[in-house]
Amino acid sequence: MSELQVPAPVDVAGEVLATTGIGSPLAWQLVSLLALLSALVVLVRWWIQQRKR
To answer: How many CA atoms lie within 13 A of 10 on its CB side?
Structure first.
């Protein structure tokens, strides 16, 4: 008897990341660092505006 092999579910997100070249952990660290810095800049600018009033 031959067993039917069920194809493994394809990780679409992993495939997209691998083909676009942004699947490396370093790239994700840089993206998250930039997001954190931009959020910090927005927060500081809002805080300065609040103090001016």
So the answer is: 5
User: What pTM was estimated for this model as a whole?
Assistant: 0.51
Q: Find tokens 């600018």 and name the residue.
A: 45
What is the SS3 assignment for the chain?
A: CCCCCCCCCCCHHHHHHHHHCCCCHHHHHHHHHHHHHHHHHHHHHHHHHHHHC
Query: Which tokens is 11 given?
Result: 């990780």
Residue with tokens 């931009």: 38
Query: Within a 10 A sphere around the Cβ of 51, how many other Cβ atoms?
Result: 7
Q: What is the pLDDT of residue 12?
A: 62
